[in-house]
Write a structure and sequence with these properties.
two-stranded parallel ribbon; Leucine-rich Repeat Variant; 2 domains; alpha/beta
Length: 264
Amino acid sequence: MTMKMKGPVLVLVAVALIFMSGCAQNYYVKTPTPSASLYTDKGDAETGLKIEDQRVGDDKNFSVGRLKVNLKNIEDEMAFLRENLIQELNSRGIAVVASESDDTPLRFIVRKYRIRNHRSTGFSPFQTATIVSGDYVSNGETKKLAFYFRIGKVPMWSMKEVVDPCYSIPLSIMVKELASKINRFSFDLQMPREKVEALVQEIEGSEDNFLFLKVLELGYTNHPAAIGPLVQLTDHDDDYVKVAAICSLGVLGAVDQFEFLKKW
């Protein structure tokens, strides 16, 4: 008996066969766009930041997982992290420069840094988990500095559909969240209150599929005025928005919400 496959079914089977064949995928990720909002008080004094690669063994593998993925325009992931993190801090008005000196006042000692992909079958979501962790040293005081983000996408027509949601967006969020935590640890600068209020108004009533990105921006403000709206957003119907609100409370260091967060 001969069976004719309709277009969408044929495409899905083709994608499944690509996945199961083990062929390497070559992707080009977008460069993170620096933030457009300055903090209220700019850090004018130039400060050195050294980013050290202290990964060992298998932790030195950056793109790993069930499917072999080559990120063609990230030949050196440490250089990618360094350049974009410095640009993000500078875009917020913090005069940080890359340094190679062990005596520099700011150091980020990276111990884990990778993107792990996973997919159960050719018809299930393609998922990535982007991870960065290490020790951040600010004027002799050491703190843990970490980032974790997991997201998935079911490709319908081409595996290229996973590039933005599973690679470009997580890497952009990574840079912005690490910059926000470095600011809170070392500079404690804030975005203007009116920027926070405008962002809250933009979020309210929005049905944007990527609304969670705006919610994450509330965490980048380092302003206590963002805490109340974020607590309310933990009850949002969109799970991505809900998780983004919880994460943003952590980025803000909202210790007064610790008991509230324990229920999650």
